Amino acid sequence: MQKEDCFYLGKIVSKHSFKGEVLVKLDTDEPGIYENMESVFVSIGNNLVPFFIEKCYLHRSNLLRIRFEDVSTEQDADRIMGSHLYLPLEFLPKLSGNKFYYHEIIGFQVMDKDHGYIGIIKGVNDSVSQALLEVEKDSKQLLIPVADNIIDKVDRDNKTLYVTTPEGLVDLYLNE
């Protein structure tokens, strides 16, 4: 399994018992749906290694307490401490309407209310405080904020994202 075929679920942040249980800080709005998992992929070095789960349940609001099958001591837990957990993309809950996962809109065309076709989504930069769509047209890159007041419609069937960009934004990039 490759990371490109998976989504990031969370990070092992601490040990919970001397029997190898760990706490995972989940990166999700709905932690409850991951409570009864059977397995996950743990990132070790450059590899995703499958780990089978004996017991798994919510611990406080967004922490998941996990007891892995082959992790039974503190030393075992130390070896995976700080590791990231992943699940295959098909385990993501389906979204509808204008909600979307960043990976699913890569390759969508972007249609602006005033400018029409403005390019293809090449990526989403979510490493800044405001996530940005990276849209490319004629080898120029446009950065469009991911915000409810900008994204009008997600048309999954036609792989099109309809937007109303702030005045001057598209001109700033395309009329250089």
Can you describe this structure in just a few lines?
By secondary structure, the chain is mainly beta. It is built from 2 helices and 12 strands; from the N terminus they run βββββαβββββββα.
Q: Could you list the spans in which at least 5 consecutive residues all have pLDDT below 50?
A: none
Number of strand segments: 12
CATH top-level class of the largest domain: Mainly Beta
Strand order of the largest sheet: 1-2-5-4-3-6
What CATH calls the topology of the largest domain is: Elongation Factor Tu (Ef-tu), domain 3
Structural class: mainly beta
Tell me the Rg in angstroms.
Answer: 20 Å
| Overall mean confidence score, pLDDT | 91
Give the CA-CA distance, first to last residue. 43 Å
Number of domains: 2
| Bulk shape | elongated
- How do the helices and strands follow one another from N- to C-terminus? EEEEEHEEEEEEEH
At the fourth CATH level, what is the homologous superfamily of the largest domain?
A: RimM
Q: Which range does the strand content fall in?
A: over 45%
- Name given to the CATH architecture of the largest domain: Beta Barrel
Percent in helix: under 10%
Largest sheet features: 6 strands, antiparallel, barrel
Number of contiguous helices: 2
What does the model show?
By secondary structure, the protein is mostly beta strands. The protein folds into two domains: 88 residues, Elongation Factor Tu (Ef-tu), domain 3 (Beta Barrel), CATH 2.40.30.60; 73 residues, PRC-barrel domain (SH3 type barrels, Roll). Helices cover 7% and strands 45% of the residues. It contains two helices and twelve strands, in the order E-E-E-E-E-H-E-E-E-E-E-E-E-H. The protein has a six-stranded antiparallel β-barrel with strand order 1-2-5-4-3-6. Strands 10-9-8-7-12-11 form a six-stranded mixed sheet. A hairpin with a 4-residue loop joins strand 11 and strand 12. The longest helix is centred in the middle third of the chain and has 7 residues. The protein is elongated, with a radius of gyration of 20 Å. 21% of the residues are buried. The model has no long low-confidence stretch (mean pLDDT 91).
